[in-house]
Specification:
Strand order of the largest sheet: 1-2
Number of helices: 7
Mean pLDDT: 76
Strand content: under 5%
Low-confidence stretches: none
Number of domains: 2
Helix content: over 70%
Number of strands: 2
């Protein structure tokens, strides 16, 4: 009779069936990817909104503000040409510049509602300048309002100076060129005003008012430009901070996700593999001829059903083996 050593095997299968465990594993794998996807989409949307605001609103408004300053400078140039030379072409040029400037200011107001109070003030100053210039035109059309030869000489010198500035404009930034033009115009104001007043004393107050309102428009358009560039700079800094934060956040979340996924990849398979390894060891033990096997089965699902089937099989084999030994005649 073959002696066997009684051995106990534990088959612990907590949880549900294998199908449920596989489904749970897939769900967990997908779930740990949610934070990575969420943070990536969140930062992408936020940075996208910042870029869209810069491209669609702030940058166009800043560019239009620069154009507004240039148009105002062109209007002032045409104004001086007309007041000094009684040139009808300069009058038409001034009208066109004023019209373009008004369209630009209205376009800036439509781009950003936050600029509406400032654009309204600029439009009000522009309308005041336009009205004052119309008064100057009416005054020039009166008898004795025609310019003198001395004024022509002053204007020629003034235009030559401006031409020299514009010739070197290719080597200068746009904002630098605008500031230089403003400075040159300011330096000529006193000389031009004095010359105009000598030719037509009635223009004294009109010229002073035109200078004041024109400077108000230039100041407001410069403020609009500076405000929009400040917003662009602020949005740029915010976008850089968000990108830096996103790099850190995604790195941390990715590291945590990797650790969790590695841990799950070891824990879940072990819950399935460990009871199967116990069953394999029990079958190997029975195959070696030792049927003294005890099973401690806990849980449910396919693994537990398989363990019960193996226990019954070993029990039947053991009964047949014991019956065969009993029927054998003694020697």
């Amino acid at each position: 009779m073959r002696l066997g050593i009684r051995k106990s095997f534990k088959v612990l299968a907590p949880g549900g069936s294998l199908r449920k465990r596989v489904a749970l594993s897939l769900a967990v794998v997908r779930l740990i990817l949610v934070p990575v996807i969420f943070f990536a989409v969140y930062y992408l949307l936020v940075v996208g909104r910042i870029v869209e605001r810069i491209v669609s609103f702030d940058a166009p408004a800043a560019t239009l503000s620069q154009q507004a300053s240039i148009e105002m400078l062109e209007a002032r140039r045409a104004e001086r040409n007309y007041l000094l030379l009684y040139d009808t072409a300069s009058l038409q040029s001034n009208r066109e510049s004023i019209s373009k400037l008004e369209q630009i200011l209205r376009a800036i107001r439509q781009l950003n509602a936050a600029d509406q109070p400032l654009t309204d003030r600029a439009l009000e100053a522009l309308h005041q300048y336009d009205q004052q210039f119309q008064n100057a035109v009416a005054n020039m059309q009166k008898p004795g309002g025609a310019p003198t030869d001395r004024i022509r000489e002053v204007l020629r010198a003034y235009e030559n100076d401006l031409s020299g500035i514009l010739k070197g404009a290719k080597n200068k930034r746009r904002d630098q060129l605008v500031e230089e033009l403003r400075a040159r115009i300011g330096s000529f104001d006193s000389q031009i005003t004095k010359t105009a007043q000598e030719g037509n004393p009635a223009l004294r107050q009109i010229t002073s008012d035109l200078q004041t309102s024109g400077q108000d428009v230039l100041r407001l358009t410069s403020e609009l430009e500076a405000r929009n560039w400040d917003r662009i700079d602020g949005d740029h800094r915010r976008a850089r901070r968000l990108i830096s934060h996103s790099e850190w956040a995604l790195s941390i979340v990715s590291a945590i996700t990797l650790l969790v996924s590695v841990w799950i990849s070891f824990v879940l398979p072990q819950q399935v593999v460990r009871p199967l390894m116990s069953l394999k060891e029990a079958v190997d033990h029975a195959a070696a001829g030792n049927y003294e096997i005890e099973f401690e089965i806990r849980g449910e699902g396919e693994v537990v059903q398989l363990a019960n089937s193996i226990r019954l099989l070993i029990s039947h084999v053991k009964e047949r083996y014991d019956g065969t030994i009993t029927r054998q005649p003694a020697t």
